[in-house]
Amino acid sequence: MLMKPYRSVGAALGWFTCIAQYWLNVQQFGLPGATITYFGFFTMLGNIQVAVAFAAPLFPQFPGAAFFNRPGVRTAIAVYIFVVDVIFYLLLRKVYDPSGFGAVLNLFLHYIMPPLYVLDWLAFVRKQSLRYKQIIYWQIFPLAYAFATMLRGALTGYYPYPFLDVGKVGSGQVAINIAVLAAFFILLSAGFVAVGRILAGLQEKRLTAA
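^ that's the sequence the OP posted. Answer follows.
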């Protein structure tokens, strides 16, 4: 009963935040620079996925909606946006401290949209089909992002995050950082599957008892 209005609010907030952040980047860097910068951040890619995932159940006729409605895909997105939240809080909140409208958008990107989506996952996603073997597929996106980011950095010298900046921390430390992040993604994915299977089992018990 609450699922549709909740996801409507989530979709509206998610798309507003993503579009507004792009507009703000255009004001600062111009269209070409803004586009390159915007899509170079895992934060933005994760929040775009969240906005799409919130909207997909509301518009099932749209191309790609069926893909984003899959429990496995929605769980992978929950992992990605949870990582965005944790990494920003632990490593970046003292490095990136915008003001004005940027501060409002930063609040939504890192502190509002992540828990909103994780709550959607907890309350509304069917979890009976979740399996640990799916975890390997969920790592493709973050690994592809890491590869593209390092390649771009090698060609341009620009890295979106300080812990990936070879020029500042060195290639060895960056390799360690990527390995730690990869392990974090895998462990967190396993945690989401474990919680999902527990919740699915509890739901089945309630239905059986009823």
